[in-house]
Please model this.
Amino acid sequence: MRLPLVRPDELTPRQRPLYDAFEAMVEADEYKGFEVRDTDGAFVGPWGVMLHFPELAQPLAQFIDLAQQLPGLSERARHIVILTIGARFNVAYEMYAHARLAARAGLRPTEIAALCAGGRPSDLTEEESLAADVATALTGEGPLPGPLYDTVVETLGQQTLDTIVFVTIHYLALGTVLNAYDVPAGSPRREPKSAA
Model:
């Protein structure tokens, strides 16, 4: 990672409330099974980056919280969208964490592998295929094609289309942050402090 990880004993007064909020958030079951902190208690992944930007992290966290609560999309389809975006931009931590979450949502290892390789499993449901189509189109050039928009609205409903759009925005934002600061999957190696 291009930014140093921030250990709990290194937190500034502006970072401490954010660290505490992250700590409370990652106690949820959905964060089990992949690394969110290193052995020193420093957050990794998006949390490790956002600690460097507390003023930006708070509104981004509010947006993310709202986007995660949007209804109308199954957990499998949600993770298909996330892995489609992660693979499109080769976001290491996004694919690392969400491969585990996708497995919990019921995706098989072969489906997860295909999505992380930028492919499309052949056995997706109609909802899942359309969600992947929308995420793929939104990460390409130009507007969402009219026939795809119309098909998703007619088949899944406007609310589901809206959820796919905002989940895509959520993971594009996080993916951009993760890639800008070259956040690896799991813990980056902490450089030993030089003796002064």
Observations:
- The chain has two domains: 8-68, 70-180.
- The radius of gyration is 18 Å.
- The domain at 70-180 is CATH 1.20.1290 (AhpD-like).
- Residues 188-196 have pLDDT under 50 and may be disordered.
